[in-house]
Amino acid sequence: MNFSRRSSRHAVAVVALSAALGVAASALTGCSSAGATSDGKPNVVVGFYPQEFLATSIGGNDIHVTSVAQPGAEPHDMEITGKQVAKVTDAGLVIYIKGIMPALDNAVANNNSEHGLNLATVTTLKGGYKEIGQENGKAGKDPHIWLDPVLMKKMATAVGDRLVKIDKAHAATYKQNTATLIKKLDALDSAYKTGLANCERTSIVTTHNAFGYLAEQYGLTQVSIAGLSPDNEPSPQRMTEVKTFAQEHGVTTIFFEEAVNPKYAETIASEVGAQTAVLSPIEIAHKGEDYITIMQANLAALRKALGCS
Ligand SMILES: [Zn+2]
């Protein structure tokens, strides 16, 4: 996966053409001529991996995708550079989920709100950290909607619709690619429904509070050690609450994630005699994997932890 693809050509010609054809044309057609490169392909800026997956799956070779996230780094509260703000400003489409990267949220709001697509608007965000204990969770809404395949389908539709709007010449391709992706997400949803239907346990303990939407969709209960952001430091009181929960619910596995230190998960696991395993919040790109394959690996990890038949 080419995570750091950057489109560097911002053609003077396009700017001149836009100026010549003018405000009238763009007023009539919305944003059809904005944010295109010299080859006519729309410049699409994305926040972090799941939005990149949607853009590349649906836009294919007909768009240029630039990801704002730094490879390998979890995106919560990630800063963005002046160069990236310029990319946002010039983009024909910016796909983001408000609440993860406030610097990107602000860049869109201040410089290019017309071409922003906030995927959080496909649903009503729930409050974060609503399970046991409230003391160390950041207040605010839970933005981790991409971990629910059903919401991911809505996001795919939103991205497809917007690409059709900004680049009518390739509308048929975008529609086809959206339909193909939705089929894959339907299959994923079915696999989760079936795979989690008959389990000995339904409670999961995770490091960061990323799996609330997934849990709700498939009848699980999530309890997290840290809050909505994975680098939150849990209090001793929180550690005790989670440990007690794990013991009372016979939890066999404490989940941690790839980009974050597993020490808190390991501490609780050793105290309650559980194992640790990876459950990916899919916030960073994985070489040789995509959203679908990581979700499948997550399902296998959940089935093992919950004793599903
Ligand atoms: Zn997160």
Automatic annotation (TrEMBL):
Record keywords: Signal, Transport
Organism: Antricoccus suffuscus
PROSITE patterns to which the protein is assigned, alphabetical: PROKAR_LIPOPROTEIN
Gene Ontology terms, MF aspect: metal ion binding
Family: Belongs to the bacterial solute-binding protein 9 family.
Biological process according to GO: cell adhesion; metal ion transport
Alphabetical list of Gene3D superfamilies matching this protein: Nitrogenase molybdenum iron protein domain
Identification of the protein by name: Zinc transport system substrate-binding protein
InterPro entries reported for this sequence: Bact_metal-bind_prot9 (IPR050492), Lipoprotein_PsaA-like (IPR006128), ZnuA-like (IPR006127)
Cleaved signal peptide residues: 1-27
